[in-house]
Amino acid sequence: MNVTFRPVFIRLREGMLILLMALLTSGCAFIESAAEITVGEPDIAAVEIESTVSLDQVNQALLGNLSEEQKIAAESLGLAFDSGATLLDLRSRLCELWKFGFYARPRLDIELTPKDDPNLKGVKVRLEVPIAADAPVAACLETGFTARAIVEFVPWTAEQAAQVKEQLNTDLADIGDAIVQVRFAFSRLDFMRGDEAITSDLLEDFAIILIADVEDDPTTPYDDSRLSIVPFFLLDTISEATPQRFELDPDSLVTQSIKQTILEPPSANDELAMGVEAFVAFRESELNSTPIDKSGFVFKMQPEITINVLKVLN
Q1: 3 state DSSP class of 193
Q2: Domain coordinates of the chain in residue numbers?
């Protein structure tokens, strides 16, 4: 698992001063159309995340969800997977554990612990059979399979957020008005099975969801703190050569939360944390050809903020 962050907001005010001088030497029409500057790479951190699971992690999680008595009783099922096991095998195992009462739901949560990265708070991967709680157990083997990863991260430090506020050097109301757009540019977005990226025609669904308030338990229903930003049909168009930008709804809680970190920089890095959730639903035909080992999400996203220069620099 990799998460890469770069320095944030180094030349913001200097860039706005240069643009302002250009605007002042231009006509009014040009000023109206060009009085905005986008702050992105390299001044805002780009986030690169590789979140894949290993066969060992899955085997450990299968046992970790059981009590000692249950582990002994479940030995007859042969819980541990051997090399070459697929998502179809995992679905069958989860359905068995659910059928015999070892699991309350046919799903497996895996916690990936980040090492030596103060900006990454945690990653949770959920592998699940999306069956209704009141559905018959017999339907479990015919109900598809999903995977999701929720990454909680700090996009920039509290010190850097305060630096932005200081560089803008204006009051809170003006800053709020000056931030006219928040968006994310994706230059990579894949679900990997080994070394191969699965194309969209082999998937039932795919989603990227920004989360203002990361909860302990990932849930499917959307609420005010969750914002889906990448349309499924655009998945295959995203690459390093053709990044796709997605503007956030200005009225969403996620957008307001991002703005708030600039309006009122917090004192602790943890208060800046936000989340991004990647979700995939597999076609039935792909489960037996998708190995458990080294499968997971890989994506790179670049936050970008558009600022109206004239509202910041009077």
Answers
A1: strand
A2: 2-312
For the full predicted model, state whether its pTM sits above 0.85.
no
Q: For the chain, where are the alpha helices, taking DSSP H only?
A: 12-24, 28-34, 55-64, 68-74, 87-99, 158-168, 172-178, 253-263, 309-312
> Which of helix, strand or coil describes residue 133?
coil
| Residue 69: CA count within 13 A, CB half-sphere | 2
Q: How many CA atoms lie within 13 Å of 144's alpha carbon, on the beta-carbon side? A: 13
Q: What is the DSSP letter of 283?
A: -
Cβ within 8 Å of residue 173, ≥6 positions away: none
- How far apart are the C-alpha atoms of 270 and 268, rounded to whole Å? 5
Q: Which of 227, 230, 269, 267 lies closest to 45, judged by CA?
A: 269
CB atoms under 10 Å from CB of 268, counted, come to: 10
Q: Strand runs (DSSP E) across the chain, as ranges? A: 2-4, 36-39, 47-53, 107-112, 120-128, 146-153, 179-193, 196-197, 203-211, 226-228, 244-247, 274-282, 295-308
Taking CA atoms, 209 is separated from 10, 34, 52, 109, in Å, by: 28, 31, 18, 19
Task: Name the token pair of 160.
Answer: 């850097």
Residue that is written with structure tokens 């991004």 in the block: 276
Residues of the chain under the 70 pLDDT cut = 1-34, 43-45, 76-77, 114-119, 160, 163-176, 215-223, 309-314
Three-state DSSP state, 185: strand
Q: How far is CA 301 from CA 9, 209, 234, 239, in A?
A: 17, 12, 15, 11
Question: For a pLDDT cut of 90, what percent of the chain falls above it?
Answer: 34
